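Bit of a strange request maybe. I'm writing a small parser for C-alpha cell strings and I need a real example to test against, not something I typed by hand. Could someone generate the C-alpha cells for this chain?
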Amino acid sequence: MMFCNAKLFWKLMLASGLVAGSVATHAQPIKVGWLSSLTGPLSSAAIAENQGVQLAVDEINKAGGILGRPIELLTRDTAGDPTKAVNFAQQLAFSDKVHFVIGPVNSGEGLAATPILARAGVPNIVIGAIDELTDAKKYPRAFRMINTNMQWISTANEYALNTLKAKKIAVIADTSGYGTASAKSAIALLEKAGIKPVYSVLIDANKTDVMDEMTKARNAGADIVMPWSAATGLLGRLLNARGEMGWDVNVVGHPALMAAQIRKLLNKPQYWEKTYAAGYVSTTYLPDGKLPAPTQALVNKVRPLIGGGEIDITFWWVALGYDTVKMVEHAIKKAGSTDPAAIQKVMEETKNFPGVYATYSYSLTQRDGFPDSNMIMNTANTFKDGSFKPAPR
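Reply from user aminoacidic:
Good idea to test on real output. This should exercise your parser:
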C-alpha cells in the first residue's frame, strides 16, 4: 500500500512540474558546439558574442532546457586559426557528436570548417559574413544569421559614393581569408559603379607600422580610405597613422572600425573622428535617443553581468550571440527532436523569427536570414553602451 502511494505521489509531482528541474538535470543534454576565436587578433567580436551565447544558454537551462533537456555548451577557442577551426570542427562533429554548431566566428575559419560540418550532416549556425559560406546545395544544414559580407560592402560603398561623393578610394584589407575576399569584392563593386581605386593593398593583421601604406594612399590622392578587416589592432593602427599624418580623410568600411577596443588603441580621441562603418538598425539610437525596445531589454540583462557600468563591448555582437542560441532552441523545439533532417526542415520554413539583432527568414533555397532593411551606416565616435548614432546624411 505504501509502495502504491509512493508511486502515486511521484506521478502527481511529475504532473505538477514540481520536479521538472530535477528531471531536466538528468536528461541527456543537447550538445551545442561553439567555435569561437576568444583569443588572437580577431577576438573582439568573439568575446562580445560569447557574452550573448552564455546568457542565452543560462536562461534556457534555468527555464528547464529544450524539450526538458539542458544545453551543454562545448566552447572551442580557435584563436582565429583556420587549422584549429578545422580540427575542432572534426572533434565536435565526430568525437563529441554535437547536435548543433555555432560558428566559426571568422570567415576565414568558416571557409575551412563549414564543409566539414556539412559532410558530417551537423546543423550549423553561420556567423561568418563571407558570401561563400552558405549554399543550399553544398551546405544544406548551414544557415547564416549574421548579414552577408556583400551587405556590409554595399552599405559602405553606397555611403562613400552617394553621401560623401567620393571619387578616389583607397582599399586596405588584411591578408586573412576574409580580408582578401573582401578587398576583391569591394573593388569589384566600386568598379561596377565606375570608380577604380587609386590604391589597394593587403596588410598582415599583426603588422605594427602601417605608416607606409597610409602615406601611399595619401600620395595616390585618396579622398576616402576604406578598410576591410575585423582585426581591431590593425584598424587602430590605421586610424593612428592617419592622425599622426594630420590627414583629414574620411575612413569608411568594416563594422570593427567602431569596436570598443578601437577607442582604447587610439593615441588621441580625435583620431576616431570622420570614421563611419556599416552597422545595424537594432543597435542604432533612435531620434529620441533611445535604443529599439528588444535591444534595450537585452542591455538591461547584460549590464549587471559585466559590472553594472557602461557596456564597453560592441553590442550587436552580444545580440547576435544571444540570437544564435535562441534560434537553436526554436529549431529543436519546433522539430520536436535533435534529428538533423527535422531541424533542417524547420529552419527552411522559418519566417520572420524575431531576434534582438535582426528578424530572420529562410526558405528551401535561401540560407541567408538577415534582411537588407536592418543595415545602416553609423558614426564610430558616438559609441555609447555598445551602440551608435546614425552617420550623417
